[in-house]
Amino acid sequence: MSSQRIQLLSPRLANQIAAGEVVERPASVIKELLENSLDAGATRIEVELEQGGVKLMSVRDNGRGIHQEDLLLAVSRHATSKIVRDEDLHAIQTLGFRGEALASVASVSRFLIQSATDNQGGHAVEVDGGNEARERPASQPQGTLVEVRDLFYNVPARRKFLRAERTELSHIEEVFKRVALSHFAVGFSLKHNGKVLKQYHPANTLEAQEKRIAAILGQEFISNALHVENAAVGLALSGWIAQPTFSRSQSDMQYLFLNGRVIRDKNLTFAIKKAYSDVLYHGRFPVYALYLTIQPDMVDVNVHPSKHEVRFREHRLVFDFLYRTLKQALADVRPSHDLQPAQMTGAFKTLSDDTVSFRRAATQPYRSEPVEQAAIEFAFGAHSPQVPAAQVFEALAVEDSAPRVIEQHPLGNALAQLHGVYILAQNAKGLVIVDMHAAHERISYERLKTAFFEEGIHRQHLLVPLSIHLSEKDMACVLEHMDTFRKLGLILQESGPDVVLLREVPMVLSNANCEALIKDVLSDLNELGESERLQDTIQDILSTMACHGAIRANRQLSLAEMNALLRDMEMTERSGQCNHGRPTWAQLRLEDLDKLLMRGQ
Q1: Using one digit for the tens of pLDDT, what is the confidence trace for 250-289?
Q2: Which residue in 73, 187, 353, 452 has a CA-CA distance of 20 to 30 Å to 443?
Q3: 3-state secondary structure of 28
Q4: What's the Cα-to-Cα distance from 153 to each of 109, 373, 433, rounded to whole Å?
Q5: Contact (CB, 8 A) for 429 and 590
Q6: Residue 18, Cα to own-chain centre: how many angstroms?
Q7: Where are the alpha helices (DSSP H) in 287-429?
């Protein structure tokens, strides 16, 4: 029974309560210890585990080390070398700063820390389950060694919630992976039960960094990745984003780092998702490893106990910077002369498995053709002549004595159609296969978007205004964002304490359920402070128009029409995917064909 009187907790009990927040499982301990090593300037960190970290967690580094006089303080609560003044808390430049991790870990384990600086001998401090610390001399090179044994041995209620050894190890490996991704200049090694599981050497060049990325996220990711780099208004972004054709069924390969710290931010995640919105297949998730740098005083990391969540002083600025950088990088993906062809391990691989790589487009601007009407006319003429197969082969015939000179294009020159669905073309690498409907759909869609947003939103008056009943919260949101709705083509008028009248809508939304759309927009505005639903709805309609206006199967094209489509693809943004995220083309290399037909064997 409680005494019902307020009393001061003992230091040991207070530390064990704090450990409930800091130490969830062995992976939580490894995260704290790795962050301490990085803050100490270590360039080499070695992690050793036994029984999934429950029996032993050892982290050794070659950092600056801890002075002998500070070792006892290191295992005391609220003792740290990382912040001194109140102002430091508003511009945190280290991964750790609260000064409670070691004390919390030491209260629920058999704990040892030994350290040495460059001009002092080594000393050690041992703590057994939060009892009095014991100090002694120790043989130790410069740096720090922390050993955590028998985690939760003195808190059985916590220990019984630990999972199987394999499960706990997998959580530690995920933490180790994130830290290795966030600090390329540091070498890392991970051992479990005496066996080396991971080892990463320092990566100080782009090539070495890509090797580490490939080792952690897989070679297939780096083969399909675009390297991005941009800086503006006190922000810098670098990293790798996967092409839309390389995506996942879940968000398990999404890594976002802020000033070297792994973070989870739903708004920034939304910005990345939005950048992929036009090119990613429905229900799929993008893959990325991105590194955002910002001035420390522009972000507050003291928001959550795990320090994964942050708060930006200028959230909208960061959101727009991230979104526009990634959107432009994806838009610039077009076929090029230095494309990396798909790797064929068998005779043919399915398009979903293909690895088709691109580079940023050339600087030549793309001038969109005007869109004459909503129902898109086929760009190459409504009635193309029928070309007999014999005429095609005659045109392609080449005398052996006269070498053929072909103008080189990234997607090559058209040879023929296959079953009225695919265009077969020859380029310097080999054979290009183009889905003509998907390709023309993307070209038409990009032209429609350009025409729509350049000409502005044309509104249509409703003969009978639509009354929309709203909650008090939504009504306040409408009044606050009335100008936003007006810019989007929705003219709203207050008609009562809980009613607005919709008087005008964008012409392209004349047949849409505008009441449901407005309520969805308000939901986004209340939760995120912004909404892209209206623009997304408009783009969905334009996408549908482009799909219906694109070339259909069995439409016979002349060689000139096929080549015109290939040249348009080379100039059109996002031409690697159709509006639904499917690939529009694939490359079959000459060496793959030789292997398929056993030529030269």
Answers
A1: 999 999 999 999 998 888 998 999 899 888 887 889 999 9
A2: 353
A3: helix
A4: 6, 74, 63
A5: yes
A6: 33
A7: 315-331, 389-396
Does residue 531 have a pLDDT over 90? no
Q: Does the domain made of 11-200 have the CATH classification 3.30.565.10?
A: yes
Token pair, residue 183, equals: 């600090």
Which residues, in sequence order, are CB contacts of 261 under 8 Å at separation 6+?
95, 182, 301, 307, 310
Phi–psi pair at 62, nearest 5 degrees: -115, 35
CATH code: domain 206-331 is 3.30.230.10
CA distance 379 to 394: 27
Q: Please tell me the CATH code under which domain 359-397+405-450+553-596 is placed.
A: 3.30.1540.20
Sequence letter at residue 149:
R
Which residue has 């998730």 as its token pair?
285
Burial of 414 by CB count in 10 Å (0-12 exposed, 13-18 middle, 19+ buried)? buried
Pairing of strands 110-116, 123-128: antiparallel
Q: Is 241 left (phi over 0), alpha (psi -120 to 50) or beta?
A: beta
pTM above 0.85, yes or no: no
Q: Look up residue 146 and give its two tokens.
A: 């922390």
Q: What is the DSSP letter of 364?
A: P
Helix 165-182 and helix 26-39, axial crossing angle in degrees, nearest 10? 20
CATH of domain 459-547: 3.30.1370.100
pLDDT of 3-52, one tens digit each? 578 888 887 777 777 666 678 899 999 999 999 999 999 999 999 999 99
**3 state SS of 571:** helix
Structure tokens at 47: 């992690």
Nearest to 130 by CA among 243, 254, 18: 18
Tokens of 220: 């297939």
Cβ–Cβ contacts within 10 Å for residue 579, how many?
22
